[in-house]
Each structure stands twice: as C-alpha cells, then as structure tokens.
Amino acid sequence: MKISNLLLASFLLTATTFAEEMNTTKQEGVKYIKMLGGALKTELQAHIKNDPTGLEALAFCTGSADRITQEVNAKLPAYAKVRRTALQVRNDKVNAPDAIDTKIMNEYKTAIDTKTFKPTEIKVVEEGNLTRIYKPIITEAACLKCHGEHISKAIQDGLKSSYPQDKATHFKEGSLRGVIVAEIQKH
Ligand code: HEC
Q1: Whose CA is nearest to atom 9 of ligand 1?
Q2: Backbone angles phi, psi at 2, to 5 degrees
Q3: Ligand 1 first shell, C-beta below 6 A
Q4: pLDDT at site 23
C-alpha cells in the first residue's frame, strides 16, 4: 500500500471512530431526554385524566416538575445532566435559556415557520468538554390548558400567584414550546 493510501486509510478510520463516538453520545443523550420527557408526561397525563379542569395537574407541575427533573438527574451518570428550557419561560428560576439554547431554539422555530421542520430532528452542539443534545418539544392540544390562548380563570389565577413573570402562554398547537437538553461531559 502506498504511503498516501495508508494515510488516507488511517484518516478514514479516525473519522469513522469520531463519527461513531458522536453517534453514541447522541444516542445516550436522547435516552436521557426521553427519561425526563417520559417521566413528566406520564404524570401530567395522569393528573389531567384525574381532574380535567387541570388544577390538579397545575399543582403537580408547579410543585413537582423540578423535583422530578432532579430525581431523573440523580439516576444519570455523574458526567450527564438533563434539563428543559424555552424561549418564553414560565419557571425562569430553573428553566431560563442560555445563549446556545436560544440559538438552537430559534433554528427550530425558523424551521417550523418555513415548514422545513422535522419533529425528530435532534441537534448536537459541541461546547469544549461538553456535548449538548437537543430535542424539540412541540405544543400539543393537551398543553393549551396552561400554555394556550384561552386559559381558564382558575388556572390563570394559579399561574399568576406562582409565576408573576410567566411568559409561557399564548402558544398554538404545533408551535415550539421549548426543548429538552442533555449535556454530556467527555469522559
Ligand atoms: C396543568 C398545567 C400545565 C399543562 C397542562 C402543561 N404545563 Fe407546561 N408548565 C406548567 C407549569 C406550572 C410549568 C412551570 C413549572 C415547571 O414545569 O418547571 C410548566 C413548564 C413547562 C416547561 C418548562 C419551561 C418553562 O417554561 O418553565 C415546558 C417545556 C413545558 N411546560 C411544556 C409543556 C408541554 C409540552 C405540555 C403539554 C404536553 C405542557 N407543558 C402542559 C403547567 C402546565
């Protein structure tokens, strides 16, 4: 084999290994994102079923969404973390976006606006020692009770008292509600 071929072969091998590493990190991130998304959604649905006014679900989201996020994180390896954020946040104490989050969410938003959006599109961002994996959260009919345009008086009152700075209303079905982000440190 000529030297140049050898170099090419070794380059390709490195590139493939790198691509595989990226892929497994992405898969790992998606797994953690699904753990958090699944845990929250299962509970939310059960509370809405139990009390269709949404008040019980509201108490759950207000009182337990953050605790569940911490519980899911406690199950992950020390090098990994998962969280939710949004462009218009309700719980700005724990869910406020940073500059990278905002950039990624704006990309998703543009894709939705220009009808090029794929709901399964995971975005991966390398940030020094960290890989961030993003999954979009799309507003569904079930979310509108607390994030939509016509929110009942009782829910509005509850939201106002817990989140005076609430920006997470007036969403429409199919719009970007936010993202779940997994952050995985190189290890
Ligand atoms: C019963 C009311 C209620 C319903 C229904 C509801 N949410 Fe929320 N949501 C909340 C509350 C309260 C918070 C703030 C507490 C928290 O979760 O951190 C919140 C926060 C969020 C956040 C975190 C970002 C932020 O703004 O703080 C996301 C993302 C979110 N909701 C998405 C959804 C989606 C998607 C649905 C539908 C599948 C949904 N919500 C349905 C009440 C609700």
Answers
A1: 61
A2: -70, 155
A3: 44, 54, 57-58, 61-62, 65-66, 84, 86, 89-91, 95, 137, 139-140, 142-143, 145-147, 168, 177-178
A4: 81
Distance 40 CA to ligand 1 centre (A): 9
The whole-angstrom separation of Cα 158 and Cα 77 is 36
Residue 177 and residue 25: Cα distance in Å, rounded?
Answer: 25
Q: Best substitution site from 70, 84, 147, 172 to test ligand 1's pocket, by max atoms within 8 Å of Cβ? A: 147
Between 21-30, 44-53, 86-95, the lowest mean confidence (pLDDT) is in 21-30
Pick from 47, 101, 143 the residue to mutate for probing ligand 1's pocket: most ligand atoms within 8 Å of its CB: 143
pLDDT band at 1 (very low <50, low <70, confident <90, very high): low
Cβ burial, residue 136 (10 Å; 0-12/13-18/19+):
buried
Q: Cα Rg for the chain, rounded, in angstroms?
A: 20
Q: Name the residue among 14, 17, 20, 22 with its Cα closest to residue 126.
A: 22
Confidence (pTM): 0.91
pLDDT in tens, 105-139: 999 999 999 999 998 899 999 999 999 999 999 99
